[in-house]
Amino acid sequence: MAGANLENSNHHINEGLLLQSLKNEDIDVFRSEFLELHPYDQASFFKDLDEETRAKIYQYLSPEEMAALFENLEVEEENVSDVLSEMSPDYAAEMLSNMYADDAVDVLNELGKDQVASYLTIMDDEAAQEIKELLHYEEYTAGSIMTTEFIAIAENQTVRSAMYILKNEAPTAETIYYIYVIDEDKRLTGVISLRDLIVNDDDVMISEIMNDRVYAVSVAEDQEEVARKMKDYNFLALPVVDFKHHLLGIITVDDVMDVMEEEASDDYSKLAAVTDMDTIDKSPISAARKRLPWLVILLFLGMLTASLIGRFEATLDQVAILAVFIPLIAGMAGNTGTQALAVAVRGIATGDLEKESKKKLVIREAGTGLITGATCGLLVTLVVYLWKGDLFLGFLVGISILFTLIVATLAGALIPLLMHRLNIDPAVASGPFITTINDIISILIYLGMATLFMSYLTN
């Protein structure tokens, strides 16, 4: 058995043979080779095919076999509406019926309301009802990612009767490692592992061996919070309940991995000031449409920076050398602000800031800004003095960097915390955004101090 598993794990996609068998319409060779592949490899092969070749696959695979493939497609990266339209409506509906309900919902969420209604009408009633129950939950909540294919047993059952239920329902359940225990009103009362069922005698009551300290999440809880809890507690699955603690579904670890990837991509998009980075745009128009809104906002913020510099035109006219150091000070402010921003956003995203006082974070970042500012300020004072031979100019640039780095570091830490407090995604305080804000702060500090001590500079 171990040898067979090893052989299967090393089975690579023989694209040449698969394509040749499709071209020759050799269904037996194609099915023999294709069905040996892992569903992920099947999906990888399928997504690169043209419409004509895909049409043959729909003829060669049953809807149930196609369902396993479709569950491994990245629906955000594929135009699932076009792919489904290549199939006959009956074939597509039957395929969706054979998918796990949560995966089918992910697919249907990419379609228009008319298409969804059409497929639900064609599906068998049981599958359609399961999917309808999940579709009405708000996106990005526990309810939107849970599955209803789980095994639940009653607390007044014996191990023998529970094993009977397990054997009958295991083929359609997403996981059998956790079996959830409910009371007469279908409220979640406990959990039992597959191991517990195997090692206990047949006549033992479930209520005697179940763990009644079961951890559950609310159906309305944010999916990112659910993912964090599953990571913290190392769960393979997590039950989802309503406000009366009725068991509604479960969230499995594979769904959580998708959530973590989705949330990480979303946060990175916002940090880069891009609307969506889930897909690589095939046209420059589409890419530009996603980037322009942020760039326009940053353009006007940049104009504010230019306007601010214009207000110090008299200062720059009298001491033109001051203009040389504007990019240096603004750049340092942007860099240190982005570093503090990354620390704060990561702390909020991972939940570390719930364990650590936010006050401690602010104090730590202020101290970091003081140390880095003092070090960089001393270095730049020395460099400017050796370069220009003007000690006061060097001191002015150095002290400006000191105050700029302290303020920029604090801004980088405080802005995400403020946004989090206002229930705004802290990743919106993106790198370009915080950099532009710190440009304004740094120029105000630098040129303000230069204007204040103008008499020393002109002498």
UniProtKB/TrEMBL annotation:
Main location class: membrane
UniProt cross-references to PROSITE patterns, sorted A to Z: CBS (PS51371)
CBS domain ranges (all copies): 146-208, 210-268
Signal peptide bounds: none
Gene3D superfamilies linked: CBS-domain, MgtE N-terminal domain-like, SLC41 divalent cation transporters, integral membrane domain
Membrane-topology descriptor: Multi-pass membrane protein
Alphabetical list of PANTHER family matching this protein: MAGNESIUM TRANSPORTER MGTE
The protein, known as: Magnesium transporter MgtE
Source species of the chain: Cytobacillus spartinae
